[in-house]
Amino acid sequence: MATPPNVSQRDFDRALSEFESAVGADWVFKDDESVVLYRDAYSPFKGEEEERVASAAVAPNSVEQVQQVVRTANEYRIPIYPISTGKNLGYGGSAPNLSGSVVLDLKRMNRILDVSERQASALVEPGVSYFDLYRHIQERGLKLWIDCPDPGWGSVIGNALDHGGGYTLTQLRNHFDAHCGMEVVLPDGDLLRTGMGAMPGAESWQQYKFGVGPWIDGLFSQSNFGVVTKMGFWLIPEPDAYLTGTVVVPKHDDLIALVDILNYLENTGVVNGMPQLGSPLIGGFFSQPDPELQALLSRGAPTAEIEDYAREVGRGYWSCTVKFYGAEKAIAANWEYAQEKFSAITGATFEDGESFKFPLTFEQIEDITRQQSVGSRSSTLPEFGIPSLTMFSIGARSETNPTPTQGHVWFSPIIPRTGEAIMEANRVFAEAAGELGLPVRAAGFSLPTTYWNRSFIYLFGFPISNDIEQNRKMRESFERLVRVAAEHGWGEYRTAPAFQDLVLDTYSFNDNALRRFQERLKDAVDPNGILSAGRYGIWPKHLRDA
Ligand SMILES: Cc1cc2nc3c(=O)[nH]c(=O)nc-3n(C[C@H](O)[C@H](O)[C@H](O)COP(=O)(O)OP(=O)(O)OC[C@H]3O[C@@H](n4cnc5c(N)ncnc54)[C@H](O)[C@@H]3O)c2cc1C
């Protein structure tokens, strides 16, 4: 078993035995067979000495037990690393930043403390997964939806704390924005509640985020300033109906107006579902352009020639599918209004898409699941607030994909929400990919994801393999792309521990004032540096130089 750095075996043994007294011997994991389960299955350091691994794990079942563990950790200077369900695949899994840390596994704290249909809100513990919350709502027949990410096994709290995103209404897709109120165990074992939770007797903890004074909730996301033990979330009252429609535009530069009009429609609340940009000409992520087009693109044919080709074959250059939730009549009117707005683009054409009345029938859910698992439908389960693991079937081992990758890490830069930025990002990333010898799609064009309505995110999965040399090359390419992106002002919104120091380095305004401020906070709230050392590049004083 690894021991935490700078901790004697004697102190470590004492700490583990105090953890056992706090949570029960069954809930302290020390043997290799158990601790290995906390490895990051998608680690970019797979099998290398630098792989971040835990020394042990402790799984408390109550806030008091968390406090006891934290106090013991302080006494013996044991680094601890809280996780909720630890399913952060692609961004670090359940492994700590600092090898030798003890994972503070909060999975057992999986109580759903409150779900209010009237207020459309929930209060949950860290171990509550999207599946748990969905099941709770279904079993009680509540007319509520959750907003979930693609994998339903993750936790509502862990996902939000790492700035995760989902697929339903604009105002709830950003999961940290959708939270309301927290309870936090501080690194010294003290307990605080934020927002209205700070006022004894207040019944509005899940209704008003701010309480009074500085809003400190953000300090506990992507950070190491506290262990979150409860969090409130806003849910969605079940809408009546859903509708999608697609606009197709003919020319390359139409992308600029297409995005501007989309932004207007989203920011005025007309489009309230997650839009989807596409290219009927070039095709989707899983398809290749036809050979003739491929030839045109490969020889760098002028845009006008490609547009001529698009016209000849009767395919538009770009498309945008917009999605609406609400009253049947209202969303039909919103789609009509959206078409009026998009008609400002010469040659725009429209196609009605799917529509549903809620609740969905069992058969409809099954049908959506089937379609989603082969990637052939525009609406997916998470768009109806239904958690699943269907996403994992895409890219899994199959007849057509006999050697799938061993996982991936996401390269996920934020770029401005404009057509010009999409074109510039494609130019820059294609050039960098060429230099690095990375495989780029033959079409050489990628469209961003639209989780947030005020910015775009690119999500590129960098494959992990069992080959150390390949992983080393992958890391070099990843790091180079982080730097190239930063040179253009595009920063990662989230990243795996392996890249967190580098990513924070790129947020360097005024001699890294942001990092310097975070370090001052770290030293003040966690002077022994026991909590999640190194998370998002924030290291405690005694480890900073190392
Ligand atoms: C195929 C695939 C698709 C994916 N799709 C999406 C998607 O659509 N949207 C999305 O957001 N993500 C997605 N992910 C990424 C990831 O799987 C999810 O975000 C997942 O929900 C994160 O795991 P978790 O909820 O178990 O969080 P955890 O692993 O529990 O937490 C994440 C991190 O937050 C911190 N933390 C957690 N709990 C606490 C706490 N209580 N106190 C203090 N700090 C804490 C820890 O540093 C922890 O490592 C995808 C991954 C894959 C592989």
Strand order of the largest sheet: 5-6-10-8-9
Q: Might you state the CATH topology name of the largest domain?
A: Uridine Diphospho-n-acetylenolpyruvylglucosamine Reductase, domain 3
Backbone structural class: alpha+beta
Please report the number of helical segments.
Answer: 15
If you compute it from the alpha carbons, what radius of gyration comes out, rounded to the nearest whole angstrom?
A: 24 Å
Helix content: 25-40%
Entry summary:
This protein is an alpha+beta fold. It has helices at 9-23, 32-35, 63-76, 130-139, 156-161, 254-267, 291-298, 303-313, 328-342, 362-373, 419-436, 468-487, 497-506, 509-525, 541-544; strands spanning 28-29, 56-58, 80-83, 102-105, 112-116, 121-124, 144-145, 179-185, 191-193, 227-234, 236-237, 241-249, 276-278, 318-326, 349-357, 408-411, 413-415, 456-457, 460-463, 491-492. It has 15 helices and 20 strands.
